[in-house]
Amino acid sequence: MQGRILFVAGATIGYVLGARAGRRRYDQIKAAADRVWNDRNVQKSVNDVVGTVQGFVKEKAPEVQDAVVGQAKKVAAKVKKADDDGAPSPSI
Questions:
Q1: Which superkingdom does the taxonomy of this entry point to (predicted)?
Q2: pLDDT for position 55
Q3: How far is 74 from 92, CA to CA, in rounded Å?
Q4: How far apart are CA 50 and CA 56, in angstroms?
Q5: Can you give the pLDDT at residue 21?
Q6: Neighbours of 13 (CB within 10 A)
């Protein structure tokens, strides 16, 4: 309960301060954030991370595909067996 009260109090204080700061301060903060995001070094880092993640995904995709296909075959075999036994199909 104390955590909720602190959260609501913090949100209220943030709202009030934000409302007082107004649109001009918001525009200043947004402009600063845009400058940082569009910085050459930041974009190089972002591109490096994206490249690393894409390489990892390409490397692991066959393993994930094999795991999914293997699990699908197990489920299909269970359904077929239940169907052959005349028992109701299991819910998945």
A1: Bacteria
A2: 94
A3: 12
A4: 10
A5: 76
A6: 10
At which residue do the structure tokens 């209220």 appear?
Answer: 12
Structure-token pair, residue 61: 């995709």
2-37 and 40-85 helices, crossing angle to 10°: 120
Residues whose CB falls within 8 Å of the CB of residue 75, separated by 6 or more in sequence, listed in order: 92
Each domain of the chain, given as residue ranges in start order, spans: 2-84
Q: Is the CB of residue 89 less than 8 Å from the CB of residue 82?
A: yes
What pLDDT does 65 receive? 93
- Euclidean distance between CA atoms 19 and 55, whole angstroms: 44
Q: Which amino acid is at 1?
A: M
User: For 38, which DSSP code?
Assistant: T
Along the chain (92 residues), what's the average pLDDT of each consecutive run of 10 residues?
Answer: 84 81 82 94 94 94 93 91 69 62
Grouping H, G, I as helix, E, B as strand and the rest as coil, residue 1 is coil
